[in-house]
Amino acid sequence: MTKRKILLIAVAVLLVALVIGFFAVRQNASDEGIRRTIIKNLELDSETASELQRTDRITIVLVGTGSPLAQAGPQTSTAVFVNGQFLLFDAGNNTLDVMNSLNFPLYELDAVFITHFHNDHYADLGDVMEWTWIWGRRHILPVYGPTGITQIVEGFRSAYELEESYRTAHHGEEIMPPEWSPSEPIEFAPPADDSAIVIYEKDGVTVKAFRVNHAPIEPSVGYRIEYAGKVVVLSGDTVRTTSLLENSRNADLLVAEAMNKEVVGAIEDINRELGYENQATILFD
Fold it and tell me: What value does the mean pLDDT take over residues 113-135?
């Protein structure tokens, strides 16, 4: 073998070693970057959970406020953190994604409350029920709602039954315990008058339900959350009613539905002018 061939082989070996070394360094740097990201996210999750679950204040997060006709973005959903409890009121489309992006401790969700059965108020309920279990919820999730909530919850449970069985088969009962996957519907009949009924009591936190008017959707309710002398009221979808006024009296915070009728009317008129009668009628309704 000539000196030239030996030199070429040596150079080739050196180049291979350099390439291997380069990719090894890149891989190590990549691994370290992933490690730092995971640690940072875990720390952020812990900090967020600690802040939200403080017992010295009530924290309300407007998870979604989107229109029922919205095609993107989060629809109606409000999270209430009170005395270490995580209560979710309504779960419209994209609720889960937003809560996840906000680093909510979803595995610690204590209860869900639905105001009425328009899908912009419960479209994401099935995903909330399922993913809180996947991420570590270890209690049966109660889902409160007026008459009809049993049908809604049982429908989602049926839809996710196969998916849950696959999760447990894949990861094992210790990681995905099937006994904690269910959600339990807790149904109540709203009062016929302006009064409110207690539907939830735990560690000093009380949730009351009262009737509102969202005709022809029947029943429809609002909720009143009470803790340590403080009151938060969620109107649900409603017109002005005496029950809403009565149950909002002396509230520290009222989260109320609102509609800009002038803007909606303008959109309706334009749709009608353009020949889109169905859309115009829906907007009018």
Answer: 97
Distances, alpha carbon 188 to alpha carbons 110, 130, 197, 234, 279, in Å: 18, 23, 9, 17, 34
* Per-residue model confidence (pLDDT) at position 98: 96
Active-site position among 90, 120, 127, 237: 120
Q: Tell me what pLDDT residue 55 has.
A: 83
Bridge partners, residue 225, by sequence: 207, 232
Helices (H), the chain: 3-52, 95-101, 125-134, 149-171, 242-248, 261-273, 277-284
Please say if the pLDDT value at position 8 is more than 50.
no
**Tokens linked to 259:** 């509609």
* pLDDT tier at 180, thresholds 50, 70, 90: very high
Pairing of strands 141-146, 58-64: unpaired
**Residue 120 catalytic?**
yes
What pLDDT, on the 0 to 100 scale, is given for residue 162? 96
Torsion of Cα atoms, 121 then 126 then 127 then 129, to 10°:
110
